[in-house]
Amino acid sequence: MKRYRSALFRGRWAREGHGRKCAGFRPRLLPGDPPIERLLILLIVAMVLGISLGLILPRVNEPVGRVTGQSLVNGPVADALNALTVNDRVSTYGYKRDSFGYRQVRNYGDDCDVREHVLARDLTNVSYRWAGDCKVASGVLHDPYTGRNINFVRGKDTSTAVQIDHVVALENAWQSGANRWDQVQRYRYGNDMYNLLAVDGQANQEKGSASASDWLPSNITYRCEYAARQIGVKSKYRLTVTSQEKAAMQKVLHQCPAQQLPSS
Question: Which residues belong to any copy of the GmrSD restriction endonucleases C-terminal domain (predicted)?
Fold first, then answer.
């Protein structure tokens, strides 16, 4: 009887237009409400909460992603990075620099090793020891790692001012998959000009075998291209990245989503 009266009262209330006058009126879950009404009210509440969260969460996640460097990055280089295998179980066991045969290959139709050809490519105002020679005597390097101009002069005490860097270091390559290569593949990697740059000698020494998670060029304007070249090298040779290395590269790429992979 109580339920019947309650229903009649609610119907009469609505017919008389009282509901329109009470703009702030909300239905409450009363002990006498039928289960179907409770279910409808719960569904409405859930829909409102879902819409609210959908509007709020993107605004929360975007700055968090920028701070942590973990939000999604788009672009050709980012796509190549995401295609790399992530492997955090790495080891340098058995690594020897000589295993890569750096400067032990003559594939250029002359008597010069890869260092001379990188110098000739990366320096300006290049001069050779004599006409027809392939060994660089002097030149000017606009160093990508520091942004400085360095005058290169061949000599026992001066040649080290400009050194040749493996962008993805040999030791890094070893622990990223090169430990399973045969000698031919390692020699190819060790002398691949795509992975070699003429750079400031001191910066090269500071970098050592560090990955992007531990070292980046002090020249901020070059970091995007540096990360892109590392990714290009790892893609070319199907090398892996660690999760920290990948996160560091993603953070760099946030500044340059349109960055392209360097051509080989």
Answer: 115-252
